[in-house]
Amino acid sequence: MTSKQQAPRVGFVSLGCPKATVDSERILTNLRAEGYLISDSYTDSDLVVVNTCGFIDSAVAESLEAIGEALQENGKVIVTGCLGAKGDVVRETHPKVLAVTGPHATEEVMGHVHQHLPKPHDPYIDLVPEQGIRLTPEHFAYLKISEGCNHRCTFCIIPSLRGDLVSRPVGDVMQEAENLVRAGVKELLVISQDTSAYGVDVKYRTGFWGGRPLKTRMTELANALGELRDENGEKIWVRLHYVYPYPHVDEVIPLMAEGKILPYLDIPFQHANKRILKLMKRPGDAENVLERIRKWREICPDITLRSTFIVGFPGETEEEFEELLDFLEEAKLDRVGAFMYSPVEGAKANELPDHVPPEVQAERLGRLMLLQEEISTEKLKLKIGKIMRVLVDEVDEEGAIARSAADAPEIDGMVFINEGQSLQTGQFVEVRITHSDEHDLWGEVV
Ligand code: SF4
Question: Which pTM was predicted?
């Protein structure tokens, strides 16, 4: 990786006629304007651009040879110019090149350069600091991986507001993650409308990160994020939010068991009754989900499961609601958010018959929360005596407030450290849990 102080270096090989030379000059001008240094040796470059000629056979041979040499000496090569316009000849001879463009393609070449060798940050020109503008504290940050959603849950109007799923290029996401970690972030919260659908819109296209191919896909992204380290070489926390319950979610559980990403899954189930889920246009049913949860816990016993549910959905009968309570009792989820159905303007579910009266909705919500509180209290009690790694969020004269792997900021519980006055915000520390209530834990530094 190129350090902040050292500008990235690009090697440049320019072959062919004067028109090609003009193309080379344009690319070089852009590179310099953006702060890249131009290097005259392969070994001293972070990446090499070869501007090729494809006019006659001997020029083709010379270009292919130049690409081969650059690949051998440096390894990271972008090809542009006339040979690039001649079908697959470059890729067939040199499958390892990072990208191929035709002639007069300055912008395209610059795009590939940015992808494989990020632009140096210039504090005098760039409006946004290197790590972006953030509203969260220094030590954790949200990492948005896509926008929009391909589902059409009948209670939701997000797709009509934000459109269908558009995934960010995986190289950009990883670059942002790296910048955040370099700026001191210790915990990345991966968010989107539908995290497990990441890459569906681009057919899981292969992008690049650090010169390596990387698929635009949740599992591959989670794996790559799990490799990031802070300035002390310590692993950072990666937490997955809004994971729609697709079957391939099962793939990330082993990554949690290995400690690559946090053993935490925020997976909105919304209900447990098959008929209601169908009315919501959501997948799954209680039996199915319980079986999956059992398997997840088998693979990763420490997993924290957070989910959200809607009570009083149009047409929900008392029996169907009780099925949801039975499911919660059985599933023993760690964290639960529940909401009364409310008719959002434009949502399809508004047209369904038999809306549940608000007082019945409120009564059901109360029962559900009470049950979940009991479950949560019991689960947190089991943590007393355990040693846990926590991340400090706040320090004041009374002590420190931290979170464990089981607690996402703002929505889950906290770990209070009574004698934690000397700790620092953003510090990882081991605590022994001494006390618990229905949502939070108390502990002492070990
Ligand atoms: S609830 Fe989530 S998955 Fe369903 S349509 Fe809305 S954003 Fe998409």
Answer: 0.72
